[in-house]
Amino acid sequence: MSSSSCPLCQEPGGLEILHTPKWRIVRVEDENFPAFYRLIWQSHVAEFSDLSAVDRLACMEAVALIERVLREALQPTKINLATLGNVVPHLHWHVVARFDWDSHFPNPIWGAPLRSLQSPARERLPLSLEELDARVRSAFEAA
Fold it and tell me: Labelling 141: which of 19, 65, 126, 132 has CA 20 to 30 A away?
């Protein structure tokens, strides 16, 4: 896939939270998984090993910082990290806060749901998504 046909080169990939020269952070607007963020590498590379050692370190530090914010703000049961790229071969990391009450837990979010929720998942979070987004931005500004 070339950068001209790559959806992550052509579109934000979610609600943009933060943009740097190397990567951007977006929140995926998914009603079942409201605390689902992506770190998307700005240049079109397919694999993590395509990055220099310095860029790999910067990428993983950013992923870890998103994870820390989600853990502190939400106290989830687990954080899922994934970089699949099977459908969109553009380097991006999924950082998803998971809860024992979510529709798919403990299975992956891409599998079949195990239960339905009585109320929207975002209403079960201890703070609003806007506040969570602000905490993610603030953590990077302070770093």
Answer: 126
